[in-house]
Amino acid sequence: MSSPAELHAAITDDVSTVLIGNEAVIERLSISILTRGHILLEGVPGVAKTTIANLFARAIGLEYNRIQMTPDILPADITGTHVYQENTGKFILQRGPVFANIVVADEINRATPKTQSALLEAMQERHVSIEGDTLALPDPFMVIATQNPIEMEGTFALPEAQRDRFMFKLTVDLPARDEEAELLTRFNGNPELGPEDIERVVSSDDLKAARGAVTEVFIDEKVQSYILDLVEATRENPAVEHGASPRASLAFLQAGKARAAIHGREYVIPDDIKALATDILAHRLVLSTDAELSGDSVADIIEDVLSSVDPPETSINEEPRPIEQAPDGEHESN
């Protein structure tokens, strides 16, 4: 299972034994683990944001830790500290929950800015500093933070610098009626159904090989220019006070290559970039005061940006066609 497409298919099939719907979220999680990205999940209570992260971690066989973010949690509660041992008279290092492959910062906006910043070094540098010691984090390492958009009292909005470190911001919506009906049916038959029912389907070697395959995906210069045009358009839009950063451009590049690989292609097409635009840009754009007073939304601005920039015409702008058997026994492409 060395190909990203096979890896993603195996994860999706495994997770679907418990999870209903949210295929797009699983795809973005697969892209993130393949490209060392982080994810911000937003949704109302009860839509399985934390469960999705747990299922995904179990399917890949990664160590998973959940941190319930509250106003009284301290940075040391996340990174760790040195604890005095009376029996030895020495201080020993007590590693915090950030030392895991997948770390879920549940309701991250309930923690104070000082505590939120404790994740900055970990997300960007992939190591933490504890009382002068610099300690590497596990590889792979991914932060999945969750937010509840309807209960904002007593919360602390994430600063722009921290939002920019998330590759994607994803919205977990309420399920459709037929999906919720299937949910009732499953839990009626198995009330204990949960992450414990997920089996590991991806090995460390599988993940390493799939990551290597993503780096080999080709991206045409015209598609790279398309990325730059989109990012520049966010900076020049009059409704935007602060547009996307160069980190957003890199996210487009890396995520575009991973999406192409997941869909069985060895090259990126403009549709890969367009499909990722909302999830990459939604949390990075800061609207002007006039735009907010006018009732403009970030989604509207992103739609304007996409419509204002024409995708390039490339010689590899279409999905690959299947290979069929020729009459003489040789393979030829249609």
TrEMBL record:
Residues 35-176 form the AAA+ ATPase domain. SUPFAM superfamilies: P-loop containing nucleoside triphosphate hydrolases. InterPro entries: AAA+_ATPase, ATPase_AAA-3, CbbQ/NirQ/NorQ/GpvN, ChlI/MoxR_AAA_lid, P-loop_NTPase. Residues 318-334 have a biased composition (Basic and acidic residues). GO terms for molecular function: ATP binding. The keyword ATP-binding applies. Keywords: ATP-binding, Nucleotide-binding. Residues 308-334 are annotated as: Disordered. It holds the Pfam family AAA_3. CDD domains: AAA (cd00009). This is AAA family ATPase.
